[in-house]
Amino acid sequence: MVLLDRLGLGSDLLLFAAASAALLPLAWIIGEATEQLAHYTGPGIGGLLNASFGNAPELIIALVAVSDGLTEVVRASLTGSIIGNLLLVLGFTLLVARPGALDRTSAFVSLGTIAAAVLLLLTPALAASGGSPDRQSMAVLSIPFAVALLAARLVVNRWSVRRNRRIQAAADPVEVDGWSLRTALAVLAIATVVTAFVTETLVGSLDAFARAAHLSEFFVAAVIVAIVGNATEHGSAILLAARGQLQLAAEISLASSAQIAGFLIPAVALVSWAIDPISLSFRWVELMGIALATLAVALVVTPRRTSRAGGAFLLGLYAVVAVTFYLVGDR
């Protein structure tokens, strides 16, 4: 499928369908590798590693879109990825998993990272309201906010790793009957690289799909590209939830959202200066969507035990946000 894309063979719609189908077994492989890895690291670090590897497709999507001058696509896909992980992935996770307890400390740290990102991004959004969001001055204004977000996320990641190491060290040792740590890391890395190539092919064929479906560029980026870019994380989290690994599955969803908000967004803004500088001037509807999703998840994870009703609530809210994005269209 990737070879067909490189050789220019096959229609865009055929490549879109083939790439979508290819992501399903990759989701299973990444989920399996993450589950095996969590035996050694614990759910917290396992989820963080899955989120870090799993964000590779979003980074590729963003950089390809930057090089093509599709700045609105970049911002919308990042926004959609955060909202999709919080509402769609976590919603399905809670819906298919048996109700249980989550690591609420880790959950609220992730949600706090996202909330802080929204507050920091209010300034560039407000400054861009009086003109083009892609003017040079806006890209320059975005630099200190990107640096602040990146620094804060690195501190949080360091704290999270140390905390989860202490938790894992204090836990009763479990005899691991499965993959070795090196094998789990290698499989996760290889599957992520393959996923990145498949995702690039799929994104390249999305434009034809959008034209055929008569959808706005913003909706395609915020909903379809975001779902596609996170397909392996979506699939692996839901598979793990169905296997009874609720805490690990939820950690993937929350850690991925926090990684995008605190690491991927500022990283794209800074790396884009080597290609074509992009500003962090998100639309108000995007920031409101992230804030609403963060608040909803906080309400759902506050009780000591999860519920399938909470998962259904998150899925319903995602449908409302997706319809809103469809109605507002392009900027």
Mean pLDDT: 81
Number of domains: 1
Overall strand count: 0
Which radius of gyration do the C-alpha atoms yield? 19 Å
Whole-Å distance between the termini? 34 Å
Relevant CATH superfamily: NCX, central ion-binding region
The ordered H/E elements are HHHHHHHHHHHHHH
Low-pLDDT regions: none
Put simply, the count of helices is: 14
Helix content: over 70%
How would the global form be characterised?
Answer: globular
Give the structural class: mainly alpha
**For the record, what CATH class applies?**
Mainly Alpha
CATH architecture classification:
Up-down Bundle
The CATH topology: A middle domain of Talin 1
Sketch the major β-sheet.
none
Please characterize this protein's 3D structure.
By secondary structure, the chain is an all-alpha fold. The chain has one domain: NCX, central ion-binding region (A middle domain of Talin 1). The chain contains 14 helices and no strands. α5 (71-96) runs antiparallel to α12 (246-271). 51% of the residues are buried.
Fold blueprint:
Blueprint lengths: L1 H6 L4 H30 L1 H12 L1 H12 L3 H26 L7 H24 L8 H35 L10 H24 L1 H8 L3 H13 L1 H12 L3 H26 L12 H18 L6 H21 L3
